[in-house]
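U., I forgot to send this yesterday:
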Amino acid sequence: MFTRNKSHPLVSYRCDQLDEPTAIVDGYNSYFSFSRKRSGYSGVATFCRDSATPFKSEEGLHSSLSMKNENVVGCYGKIQDFTEDELESLDAEGRTIITQHKIRKKSGDEGDLAIINVYCPRVDPEREDRQVYQLRFYALLQMRAEALLNSGSHVIVLGDINTTHKEIDHCDPDDECFIRKPSRIWLNQFLWDQDKDPEIQDFRTIEGFQAVTSTAKGGCFSDTLRYLYPDKKEAYTNWCSLTGARATNYGRRLDYIFTDIGLVCDSKDCVVMPEVEGSDHCPCKAVFHGNFIPSVKCPSLCSKSMPEFLGKQQKLSSFFVKRSDSQPSSIKESEEEDGFSSSQEEKQKYISNNKSSFKRENSIASKLPSAKRQKNDQGSLSKQASLKNFFSIPKSNVHTNDRSSGKDTSQEKKPEEFSKGEINPKMANDNTTKTETKTVTSGSSAQAWKQLLKGPPTAPLCKGHKEPCVLRTVKKDGPNKGKQFFVCNRPEGHSSNPEARCDVFIWVDKMKNDSKTKK
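Result:
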């Protein structure tokens, strides 16, 4: 079994963009959730081996997305702390897939296991509504996970949690930030005492903390990696791709596998896999003692049940594809497309049925001027001109009359009639003129382009490594958006790492102004 979220390119799909090779994989059954708000914005997918086929599956943390499905997981908890609009909004971005399985544990006992695959929202510092959205998502996630636990099922919560827990989980932590950041405060209370960081603020000291509900219990889950390797350093799962920070392992841990404290004792191993590339995140893997008891039939949410993959084409593109059983527009077109010739009886029947339309077309054509009719008749035979023809100089007619002088020039020699020793003065003059015009135009054009596009100055050498810097552009909204600057070409890393980027930073505008001052 494995899961993917939007941090991996596999599931940057909407349902209408999901192709069969992605959804239908031999030996697996898959379950997808897509954003209802924006195409490709977020989404999750869970792939289960056939030997681990779930008995139930569900999309979202609340029932609003699964009311029409069969074999839903259920157990939603007490939702009085949420409004209906809030519940729909929290599930509208395709951030959760839940599958429920039968397992045989290490002790030999059988039980239920619910796997909650999530892609938690990221905080945008400049948007307060997204900060609230993240905290409310955490609250709903915890309520659903604890409700499933209370029903007697084991629970694993995994995916991109979009926060780091302890200082050991970050390459360059800020103590004050770790103590006060709301997402870390939520995660700290979500885990059991063995995993808690005593330096992180207690949520009960914060009035109106929005990441927990009135019924939240807390302390029900264990960080599987820290349960097995409590002191493991540099186990990062996310790096900044713009600065090449993966090369120096200058990252943070955002992806977790949380196991309820009743099942974590059956965990055998948990690792991060930075060698697996293809995203700014890397996968995590947990191995448990015991095995799955597979369901004979996949739940209704399985991608194999989607109409697109049952042979019933439902995509919008199907309305613009010519069907093989459609009535041909003409006998000739039908013969060419279908690859067979119609009998004389069929042709006569088709002509008689469409006689009125033929008459109408002939009457319209007869009223057109002869030049237009000829143009229409030849239109289908003409070929589209090359784009170069619009910029080439039209050829002059050799047989012309000079009316102004009264001289007939039609008897002048054609270019091919001159012997090798003779030169056509007219062509010589024309060629000279064209060459001179082309030279002047080309030179002035090149000069104009050089004045317009001067380009950036030569890249300076960085102070730390004496290597050419790299040019970057500010893309973040603000007063500096669009401005260019030079930085060290090395990947981002800790200040103590000599192979990491040095602190050189030079604005391009400042370099240009300095060069003008020197002149």
